[in-house]
Every structure is written in structure tokens, then in C-alpha cells.
Amino acid sequence: xxxxxxxxxxxxxxxxxxxxxxxxxxxxxxxxxxxxxxxxxxxxxxxxxxxxxxxxxxxxxxxxxxxxxxxxxxxxxxxxxxxxxxxxxxxxxxxxxxxxxxxxxxxxxxxxxxxxxxxxxxxxxxxxxxxxxxxxxxxxxxxxxxxxxxxxxxxxxxxxxx
Amino acid sequence: xxxxxxxxxxxxxxxxxxxxxxxxxxxxxxxxxxxxxxxxxxxxxxxxxxxxxxxxxxxxxxxxxxxxxxxxxxxxxxxxxxxxxxxxxxxxxxxxxxxxxxxxxxxxxxxxxxxxxxxxxxxxxxxxxxxxxxxxxxxxxxxxxxxxxxxxxxxxxxxxxxxxxxxxxxxxxxxxxxxxxxxxxxxxxxxxxxxxxxxxxxxxxxxxxxxxxxxxxxxxxxxxxxxxxxxxxxxxxxxxxxxxxxxxxxxxx
Lengths: 162, 253
Hints:
By secondary structure, chain A is an alpha/beta fold. Helices cover 23% and strands 22% of the residues of chain A. In chain A, the strands form 2 sheets. A 4-stranded mixed beta sheet of chain A has the order 4-7-6-5. Chain A is elongated and about 55 Å long. Chain A starts with 9 loop residues before the first helix and ends with a strand. The model of chain A has no long low-confidence stretch (mean pLDDT 89). Chain B is mostly helical. Chain B is 64% helix and 0% strand. In chain B, α2 (36-64) runs antiparallel to α6, α5 packs across α7 and α5 (95-116) runs antiparallel to α9. The longest helix of chain B is centred in the first third of the chain and has 29 residues, at 36-64. Chains A and B meet through loops of A and α2 and α6 of B.
């Protein structure tokens, strides 16, 4: 283990934790997802603040453990990972880079701030067609809905906008 | 504990009980859904409610500050200590019954949690800000289903109408204030539930009308959940929910 040097900065910690990914969507880092809200260092103790996506998302516990493991592996021993509910997480916090990674992975990224629209604007991540049909309000996890492309006929997950 | 703190504790536990009992009922649909997508949807909604219960129980434990945690509150209280609305604990029935109940509760939750986001209690306001987003989504889905079932085949229409007829009198208690709730309303912490009825009725009327269903006659009402007086169904629900913790006390996941 290495003692935390004076030089450890929050920027370095953000860099370190940018390797921690969502256990269910491994192409997204917690930063891409907007779950990693803040890192501060107070008297040598690292405070990491995360915010839950969905109230009952089972991935949250895994994310917390993965953050703790990454910190331990880098030699840090004094840290707290706190959950903060407010302000409530929104898919608007997902980074542009994260949206592009989702699309490349085959999941249509969330629309921005237009949650009440039923399906307008959602594009097939395979062929970019906007002729899509909703199959179900929920997909494999609480954060996704199931769609099908009417052009290439591929079914796909859409990351719900909340 | 002063009376306002005690009332806040009861309030958080009652709201947590609403979420846990309904979340548990919905989880019973796991692998019993009418088709795969719907199986996933019902269990995802269940998770939202169980997550909401966890936040409310954790906050209740913090308010109480007596060393109890969320699990103690969920697993170590018996029927008479549960404070949920009776409608949440009723057995699932058929899919029409489950979705009719869901519509009634989602329509209530959207009004209720919208109000609670304005709570003077920061934690309740934060929990509500998460819950309202989920409930709006739930309502969209349950409205959609009721319209399809009501305006569907003769059989789906008949079953859905029967479900609303059987459930209607359970709605009354959602708008009746518990004995110690008013002081929290006066303090700007709680939502005045009696004021939510008009908006709820208007949502129900418009959805049922579009679904070609009749609004049931308002000639009976049943309540008691907030006082701990339950139907016989809650005991069976808790027996399953609490079995592991009662058999192996203190067991951790």
C-alpha cells in the first residue's frame, strides 16, 4: 500500500474511478452514467458521492463495492462512499461520450429532457431508422424499455429517459 | 421522542409499508406473467417499490435513532404494526385485477409524491423526487393496459370491470388522514391526502371512460390499514416475506 501523498488530487481520483463501470452495461463508466457525483478529500479521507439511478436498482450495491475495490487496489485505505438522493438522478446527466458508447453497444441512448414523448426521436441503434415500435415499457432492467426497428426488424433496448 | 418526531417516524413507516406490500405482491408475478415482456415489466415495477420502501425505512430508522435498521422494520414487525393501505396487500387475482389495482395506486402516487417533493423535510422531498419520476412512468403503463383490457375482448372487458367493482371501496382510505398525520401537514412535512381525491377521481374517470368501463358505484368503503387493522391476507404475505429472518434471526445477505 502507498500512503496517500500530498499530491493525490481529486482529478487523479476521478481518473482512477473512471475505470469503474456499470455491472449491467459494462461499456458505461459510472462517470458516463452520471452516477459519480463528487469526490473530495478531507484530512486525508476520500469522500466519494454517488447517486442511485432507480430506487430499487440492484446494481447500486455492486457499483459501491467496485468503487471501494478500485480505491483499495490503488492503495487508498481511508474513504467513504456515500449515497446522495438529491438532486434526483436524471438521464440528462449521461455524457455525450456515454450516449455514443451506448449506441455502439446496441442500446438506443435516452432522449434529452423529453420523457413524455412516447417514441418520437428514438432511433434504431443498428440502422439509425426512426421507424421504431415500442414492444414493452420495460426491458431487461428497470432503466430500459424494449423496442423493435420497423426497417431492419431488429429488437433493441432503449435506455429510458427519466 | 417528541410528538412530531414520533408522527414523522410513523409516517415514514406507513409509506414504506405501502411500498413494501405492493412491491412484494408484484414480485409474486415473477415467472407467472402472461408473457415474458410483461413478466419483466411487473418485476421491474416491483423493484421500484421495494427500493422506495428501503429508502423510507432507512430514513425511519435514522429518525428513530434506537439502533433499528431497515431490515428490522421490514422483517420484525407483525400484522398489527403494519400501516399500509389494505388495497396494497390484497392477493394479485388475475392480470386484470393486478392492473386495475395498479392504476388506482399509480394515479394516487403521482398526486401524492408530487406533493411530497415540496415537503419541508429535505429527506422526504428527496425520496419523493425519485419516486415521482418512477410513478409517472408506472401510471403511463397501467393506463395503457387498462385501456387495452377494457376496450379489448368481451372477456378482458368483463374481467377488468369486475376487478374495479371489487376494488373500488378500497380507494376511500387513501384519502383519509391518519390520527397523527395532520400535525405533519401543519408543519409543511406531509401531504394533505384528503385534498388529492378530486384529481385522482378525474384521472380514473377519464381512463375508465376511454377504456369503455363503468365507474363503480361509490356505495361501500373499507379502511383501517393506517391503524394496523388488516385483511386476513397480510398475515400470509408477511409469513412468506419474513420467513427467513424469523427462522434464522439476524441472518445477513
